[in-house]
Design brief:
- With about 80 residues, the chain is mostly helical.
- It has one domain (about 10-65).
- The protein is built from 3 helices and no strands.
- It has helices at about 5-20, 25-40, 45-65.
- The longest helix is centred in the last third of the chain and has 21 residues, at about 45-65.
- Keywords: Membrane, Transmembrane, Transmembrane helix.
Length: about 80
Amino acid sequence: MGSVGVLILFMVLGAVICAKARVAMGAVAFSLIALVLFIATPVGAGLPDAISTFVSAFDRAATPALNGAETAGTGS
């Protein structure tokens, strides 16, 4: 797994080449493979948890506004 960085670089370059050639599915495929390889590395292992935490925080912040509920300290 020592050459994962090189594989990720080639995947990103492949995605750029496909995007320049207007091959959308190729660019998406290369990008998804690069993302999977990144998550497989120790540096990217925390990415799914970070995304989950961000989406949860966004949901907790948006839910009262969408339901019309008042937050504490903003009474009329």
